[in-house]
Amino acid sequence: MKPIVPVKRKAASDVHIPKPFRFITDFVTGEKIPDVGAEANRQTIERLLLTEKGYTKKDIEVDAPLEVTIGNEPYRSSVDLVISVDGTRYMVIKCAPGSLGSREREIVSAARLLDEYQIPVSVVSDGKTAVVLDSVSGKKIGEGLDAIPSKKALQETANSLELQPLPEKRLDREKLIFRSYDSMNVNVGRNVSPNQ
Q: What CATH number has the domain spanning 29-182?
């Protein structure tokens, strides 16, 4: 009979389990983020804003928190990119893979809910093209990456713009619309840490 030899097990710290995500460095924040879903598209848009459109890193909020209460339940999410001019938010951007048309209503709702006023310009982009919308009317005002307003263009528009709050009677409906579209997002890197 062969002697029983105990199996030497590796300590948990000696075991390398590959992370299911590749991590990249965000162009604006410098933080490590998982490269999932539309993240590559967002990095393309961040570069475009900084290198071609004249924005600075201080002008761009990444993953701006958006919380709405529906009934008595909070719904928490974030907006990919929020662009400010002189400290006032004027543009929101949703970076999405695939069809942009299905994300237009989501970003317009986010623009209407994120602040005390409706953020005037909404953009949805896949990194190759973009749809630019008037957030108050919901109408398309441009198409293509060239249609995304530069900082100079947004500053000029801001001077003639009156920021309007969302009418109270539309608030509950807009919250439901936002949650309905946003909850369908898959392959997003929310709550994923490089230390997991």
A: 3.90.1570.30
